[in-house]
Design goal:
This protein has 6 helices and 36 strands. The chain is mainly beta and 664 residues long. Strand 7 and strand 8 form a beta hairpin.
């Protein structure tokens, strides 16, 4: 999986690096396409809520497998997805609390709720790297706990509702093994912090650590369990070293009973902290996350019925008493109950479902002036959403043509009813070596917590912000079309796609022209913008599981505020990635080189703060010492890129890491 985008030519030295990377591949003789065909046969569920092979899914879906994770030099989830066309994450650092504010999906910020992030199909919230209490971080679980990731690009409100305007990222955790076994891992790294605007950081050299252990086994003839635990820690990328850590645990039980019946229970928790420097308060970020989930399923020859529910709670603190940007603390919760039924005909699958969601907000925001408490802003709200959805998957022309109409009606306790239809089409040529996909759909997004629900002014640096309870939801029309071609004789698969999203009533923050009693300006939110995002995406896979192979990707994106003519922030005009990989004939050793080039982008809506084009190079080498024992060497940001913006933040420079993975 790779991604590249370009509205300008790639830099000359990157082109030279690409040529050098491709040279040995062009002269190599590849074996078979068994590994790639196995990937295409992998079952995915996120795009249609029904089971399809990756090759047969009718919507634009990308799969990141466990093998991709094991071979990647990335240290966290956002960096792992760097190679996916349309996801812009390359100006983030590899540390736990790296600011996910800058992560965009097809030109829209995931942190602001435009992209839906799921763990095992369930909504998440907050987390290390989220910007503020309203944000959503992609860096929710350690990579060691992830089995695969399914990314659906394009509006998905027809099946998932609000917050799926740009697409869906479903992080799927490890599955219960069919035979008793476990794993353990230990990794350590040392990295350098680069200067910010010419100012050297304190504690220039810092360390990170990762620990992981898991065990699972079948129980009797029809049940099984899985236990996982892990710890990650680093010393951040701020001017002073700040110990940041996350302890994670997960437990899962699955059992089969009766004819076609099965049930599953899952519980997971995470405890995240970032320590302060020279403060009496120990932490300036604290998250305690807990999730409980249960599911009941019945599978028959012609039907698949599921009933599931989960609860997510998060206790959090951000900042500390006296902090200029405010001190927030309290609770956020999600509850969801869902039922879904799929009828499986010979040439038609019909899926119908209903959901109830409740989000609960109960916390305080303290403002400070010169370190003294000036005001307390309460946030207390219960938001209910009731939804029903219907999808019809129809096969025509000897199953070469698939037509999928879908629609979801969502009744939001604040905004009322929204109907979001979508139509997707897939056409496969002879032998399914050529596949065409297209879709058009309507999407909407509700405003964020801060934009709607704060009951007073809250301090944000040099100004106050106030919520606007009269905001309307944002709405969008999304179009996607792609063609995928496979050449088995050449071990080559290439896909090219185009997309366009038109957003109306986009919410922006603006100066009200008013000032508070202490003379500090007040900003608020209004529905004013019309935005258009369009782009071209390409991905390429060349080679097999042994010898030389290549993954490459490109994305050109134009994301414009039509009211002002400015670019939307944090959307590079192009990205380009190349990942040549070599695996020894016996499969025991290998190396992967990940090269990325990222075009210019802006940090603000006024387009006055430029993030320059930049390039990043990462390397991983691995060797199997004996069956089940693998040692990895990682070199991250090899040439110490400042990611185009050394005036904005201290950046993580070169990192060297060593890890040992055990399977037993």
């Amino acid at each position: 999986m790779c991604h590249l985008s370009s509205s300008r030519a790639a830099p000359t030295h990157l082109a030279l690096a690409a040529a050098l990377a491709l040279a040995p591949i062009a002269t190599s003789t590849f074996a078979s396409t068994e590994a790639d065909l196995a990937r295409l046969d992998s079952v995915v569920v996120t795009g249609t809520r029904s089971s399809h092979t990756l090759a047969g899914v009718p919507v634009d879906t990308v799969l990141v497998t466990r093998e991709d994770i094991d071979r990647s030099p990335a240290q966290n989830l956002p960096q792992l997805l760097r190679e996916i066309p349309g996801l812009a994450v390359t100006n983030l650092d590899d540390t736990l609390a790296a600011d996910n504010l800058r992560l965009t999906m097809r030109g829209l910020q995931v942190n602001e709720g435009y992209g839906l992030v799921l763990i095992d199909g369930r909504r998440i919230h907050g987390g290390l790297g989220a910007h503020g209490d309203y944000g959503i971080s992609l860096n929710q679980v350690p990579l060691a706990m992830v089995e695969r990731i399914e990314i659906v690009r394009g509006a998905s409100s027809a099946l998932y509702g609000a917050d799926a305007m740009a697409g869906v990222i479903n992080i799927i955790t490890r599955k219960i093994p069919v035979v008793a076994g476990g794993s353990a891992a230990l990794g350590m790294g040392r990295y350098r912090i680069l200067p910010r605007d010419g100012v050297e950081p304190n504690d220039e050299h810092r360390t990170d650590l990762k620990l992981h252990a898991s065990y699972g086994a079948p129980v009797g003839q029809s049940s099984g369990f899985l236990l996982l635990a892990g710890r990650e820690q680093d010393e951040s990328t701020d001017s002073n070293a700040q110990l940041t850590y996350r302890d994670s645990a997960l437990a899962r039980w699955h059992t089969r009973f009766g004819s076609g019946w099965s049930g599953e229970l899952q519980a997971d928790a995470a405890r995240s902290r970032r320590e302060t420097v020279n403060r009496p308060e120990r932490f300036d970020r604290r998250y305690d996350d807990r999730r409980w989930a249960a599911a009941l399923r019945h599978e028959g020859m012609r039907h698949d019925w599921r009933l599931s529910g989960y609860r997510f709670t998060q206790e959090f603190e951000q900042g500390y008493p006296g902090f200029t940007h405010g001190y927030r603390f309290g609770d956020i919760g999600y509850d969801q109950l869902e039922t879904q039924y799929t009828w499986l005909g010979d040439r038609q699958w019909i899926t119908a479902g209903a959901e109830f969601q409740r989000q609960e907000l109960d916390y305080l925001f303290n403002n400070y002036a010169n370190g003294v408490l000036a005001a307390t802003v309460p946030v207390g709200e219960t938001i209910d959403t009731v939804s029903v959805y219907l999808q019809d998957e129809i096969w025509l022309l000897d199953r070469r043509l698939m037509v999928v109409p879908a629609a979801r009606f969502e009744d939001h306790s604040v905004f009322g009813g929204e109907l979001n239809p979508k139509l997707a089409v897939r056409y496969a040529g002879a032998g399914e070596r050529t596949v065409l996909r297209a879709s058009v759909g309507r999407a909407f997004k509700s405003p964020t917590i801060r934009q709607l629900y704060y009951e007073g002014l809250y301090r944000h640096g040099e100004f106050y912000i106030e919520s606007n309870p009269d905001l309307d939801p944002e709405r969008a029309i999304n179009f996607n079309a792609s063609v995928e071609q496979r050449w088995d004789a050449r071990d080559l698969r290439l896909s090219v796609g185009v997309h366009q999203t038109d957003v109306s009533d986009k919410v922006v923050r603006t100066d009200t022209g008013r000032v508070a009693a202490d003379g500090i300006p007040i900003q608020s939110y209004v529905n004013v913008e019309e935005a258009r995002i369009r782009g071209l995406e390409l991905s390429l896979r060349l080679g097999d599981a042994r010898g030389w192979s290549l993954q490459a990707g490109a994305a050109w994106t134009e994301a414009e505020n039509l009211d002002t003519g400015n670019d939307l922030p944090y959307v590079p005009d192009y990205t380009l990635t190349l990942a040549p990989t070599w695996v020894a004939p016996g499969g025991r050793s290998g190396t992967r080189l990940a090269l990325a080039a990222i075009g210019e982008q802006y940090r603000n809506t006024a387009n006055t703060q430029l993030v320059e084009a930049h390039r990043i190079v990462d390397v991983r080498a691995w060797h199997e010492l004996k069956p089940g024992v693998v040692v990895n060497l990682d070199l991250n940001n090899l040439f110490e890129s400042d990611k185009g913006d050394d005036a904005f933040a201290w950046r993580q420079g070169r990192r060297i890491g060593l890890s040992l993975d055990l399977q037993f």
